[in-house]
Amino acid sequence: MNLNALRYFYEASHYETLTKASQALHISQPALTKHIKNIEKEYGTQLVKKNGRHIVLTDFGKELINECTPLFQQEKKIERLLMNQSQKHVLRIGSTQLNSQDVLKSILTPDSSQHVNLQLTTDNTKQIQELLLNHQLDMAILPNSSYLKEIKKEFLFEDELIFVAKPNYCNENLSLKDVLSHQFIQRESGSSLQQLLNSCFSFEVSYSVEVTSHADALLACEYGNGIYLCSKISAQQSINTNKLKQISIETIQFDPRPFYLYYHEKLPTNQFIIQIIQQFKQKTETD
């Protein structure tokens, strides 16, 4: 029995789609699918039914998950026991897909993380908030949220939202009438940016493609598939290299978007959290 493949199947069952599962598990979707199919092939059974992008377990798949639950819960208990004896503490960090690469590289330095074992999860805002509230994350870098009002927060940096497109895709300044002649990049359900985009117009805009990650959305935009609403920080490099250009749309403006470090108090890693806040403040003053 391949316990590694079984572990991937067990962990993937907690997500709505294989795409979300693969992102959370830091494995490609084809590789995750292969692990599941290998189990099915080896034992001549079916664990997952086809239902578009969603993960739907067969009756036997559900039964297997029930049997796996105490096994992998015990594994995590043993891991926590071992980590308690280690000089390193586990710190579970969550971040939106918009800022994970540019922001987290500021804190993953050898000096600051030498006594902390960092575990990174990236997802849309809604999912990261849920993980934080359920104590499945210790801290998260998120825009301001009334949903997290009971959790301690510290200001980190300010960003803004912009529209971007391939330089030759459309004019730099668009009227609302012009918008009807162009398409947008659509994000998955649960994306706060998609919800905001939906509220920008009194009419229904046209979409060329739907993607489930910010990286895929930027790539689709660079290939000329449409206009994308995103974080300026996350798109700045593509703008600087002329892969994208900033677009303005008549009457639509966004307020600056503050980002905060939300974290649970009384953690053994709180000193590291203080370091993170200080690093961001130093970076802001330098910039």
Short description:
This protein is an alpha/beta fold. The chain contains 12 helices and 13 strands. Helix 1 packs across helix 3 (29-43) and helix 1 (3-12) packs across helix 4 (59-84).
What does this structure look like?
44% of the residues lie in helices and 23% in strands. Helix 1 (3-12) crosses helix 3 and helix 1 (3-12) crosses helix 4 (59-84). It has a 5-stranded mixed sheet, sandwiched between helices. A 4-stranded mixed sheet has the order 8-12-7-11. It has helices at residues 3-12, 18-25, 29-43, 59-84, 100-104, 110-113, 125-133, 176-179, 192-200, 214-222, 232-240, 270-286; strands at residues 48-49, 56-57, 89-96, 116-123, 139-143, 152-159, 161-165, 173-174, 183-187, 206-211, 228-231, 245-249, 257-263. With 287 residues, the chain is of the alpha/beta class. The model has no long low-confidence stretch (mean pLDDT 82).
| Average pLDDT | 82
Number of helices: 12
For the largest sheet, list the strands in their spatial order: 4-3-5-13-6
- The sequence of SSEs as H and E is HHHEEHEHHEHEEEEHEHEHEHEEH
Tell me the distance between the termini: 53 Å
The residue fraction in helices comes out at 40-55%
Shape: globular
Number of strands: 13
Low-confidence stretches: none
Major sheet characteristics: 5 strands, mixed
* Structural Rg: 21 Å
Structural class: alpha/beta
| Beta-strand share of residues | 15-25%
